[in-house]
């Protein structure tokens, strides 16, 4: 196990990672405000994709309702800030706890009764939709009229209260994405990571080997939900307004899962690569759609990209790019 982890940290991979981090740190200083705002969207997509990847890419349990945990994290932190003045960071911790409990409960209920595969995926959609309808009628968080954070962005950055420019949010999300990357790498090279991958490949064989399949699947769901909720909390303070129909929307769940699938499901850098490509090209499609007055061009592009990946590179773009860059000595 240690030898395998050491190969993951080979000099070539470490140099590539260092170069990537250096470029990402310098990039906001070299581009205009519009590009910074696009990069913020890229990092949101990368972080949410990494969070979902733990559940589906590592443990093999398909969730199509991860917008549920975005919404729980966003509404919990924002409501505690609006009604009680609780610092965003404490509110986000509360949101993570709420999401972890919800995700763990959904997983425990599903897996205890052997609900899996496509039926589990449909169940996650059902819970997300049920919660969206509930929040549409939940007056304490604004219901359909929305929940608005009363403090506008300040001229100077205030990381403690999450008030500031898009550049501040960029660096915060970069830190979260790198932390998620490091956590994923750590988990994959520990017993829990090997157990998750065994469950993903053959659940019955994993159970026959003595792996507590139920416990490890519930743990994957709870961790993935908590991480997603943390990103949802940051999203609330970046947007400054929340509506159930947008926060819990099925389209948000689709956007979360698309980047890891395009980049490479179950890989470390796949969600990051997928987020960069899809957000960048999606922004171009949005501008073209507005210029040509053609609605739905971005959604059409997402569908076409998924079809192309399934047909040409079923394992995603990152494994192919990794081979091209000569980084095959590592596992991920």
Provide a descriptive summary of the structure in words:
- Helix content is 73%, strand content 1%.
- The chain has a single domain (2-12, 38-148, 155-324), classed as ABC transporter involved in vitamin B12 uptake, BtuC, CATH 1.10.3470.
- It has helices at residues 2-8, 11-26, 33-58, 67-84, 88-112, 117-136, 166-188, 191-201, 203-208, 213-239, 244-247, 250-263, 270-292, 297-312, 317-324; strands spanning 147-148, 241-242.
- It is mainly alpha-helical and 332 residues long.
- It is built from 15 helices and two strands.
- It has a two-stranded antiparallel sheet.
- The radius of gyration is 20 Å and the shape is globular.
Order of helices and strands: HHHHHHEHHHHEHHHHH
- Can you tell me the CATH architecture? Orthogonal Bundle
**Might you state the CATH topology name?**
ABC transporter involved in vitamin B12 uptake, BtuC
Determine the structural class based on helices, strands and strand pairing. mainly alpha
Number of helices: 15
- Which consecutive residue ranges, at least 5 long each, have pLDDT under 50? 1-8
In what order do the strands lie side by side in the largest sheet? 1-2
Query: C-alpha Rg, in Å?
Result: 20 Å
Indicate how many domains the architecture comprises. 1
């Amino acid at each position: 196990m240690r030898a395998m982890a050491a190969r993951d940290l080979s000099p070539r991979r470490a140099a590539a990672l260092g170069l990537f981090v250096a470029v990402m740190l310098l990039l906001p200083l070299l581009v205009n405000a519009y590009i910074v705002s696009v990069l913020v969207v890229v990092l949101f997509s990368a972080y949410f994709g990494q969070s979902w990847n733990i559940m589906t890419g590592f443990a093999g349990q398909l969730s199509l309702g991860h917008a549920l945990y975005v919404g729980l994290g966003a509404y919990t932190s924002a409501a505690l800030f609006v009604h009680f003045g609780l610092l965003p960071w404490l509110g986000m911790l509360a949101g993570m706890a709420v999401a972890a409990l919800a995700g763990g409960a959904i997983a425990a209920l599903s897996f205890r009764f052997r609900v899996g595969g496509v039926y589990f995926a449909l169940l996650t959609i059902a819970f997300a939709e049920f919660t969206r309808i509930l929040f549409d009628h939940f007056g304490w968080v604004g219901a359909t009229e929305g929940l608005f954070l009363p403090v506008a962005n300040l001229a100077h950055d205030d990381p403690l209260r999450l008030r500031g420019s898009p550049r501040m949010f960029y660096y915060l999300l970069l830190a979260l994405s790198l932390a998620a990357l490091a956590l994923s790498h750590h988990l994959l090279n520990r017993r829990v990571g090997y157990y998750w991958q065994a469950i993903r490949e053959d659940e019955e064989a994993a159970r026959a080997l003595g792996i507590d399949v139920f416990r490890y699947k519930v743990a994957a769901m709870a961790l993935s939900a908590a991480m997603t909720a943390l990103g949802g909390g940051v999203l609330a303070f970046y947007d400054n307004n929340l509506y159930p129909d947008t926060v819990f929307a099925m389209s948000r769940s689709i956007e979360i899962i698309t980047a890891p699938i395009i980049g490479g499901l179950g890989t470390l850098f796949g969600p990051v690569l997928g987020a960069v490509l899809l957000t960048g090209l999606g922004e171009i499609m949005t501008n073209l759609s507005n210029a040509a007055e053609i609605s739905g061009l971005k959604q059409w592009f997402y569908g076409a990209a998924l079809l192309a990946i399934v047909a040409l590179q079923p394992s995603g773009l990152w494994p192919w790019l990794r081979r091209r860059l000569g980084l095959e000595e590592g596992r991920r």
